[in-house]
Amino acid sequence: MSKKATIIIVIALAATLLFSACERSAQPSLATPTAVPTSLTAQPTNLSLVQAWGTKTAMYVNTMVALGTFTPVPSTSQATATPLPPGTVVATSVLPATGAPTTAPVTGLTPVIIVATPTPGHPSSYTLQSGEFPYCIARRFNVDPNDLLAANGLSSGQILQPGLQLRIPASGSFPGVRALTSHPAQYTVMVDDTIYKIACHFGDVDPNTIAAANGIAVTTPLVTGQILNIP
Question: In terms of Cα–Cα distance, which of 128, 152, 151 is closest to 140?
Answer without folding.
Answer: 128
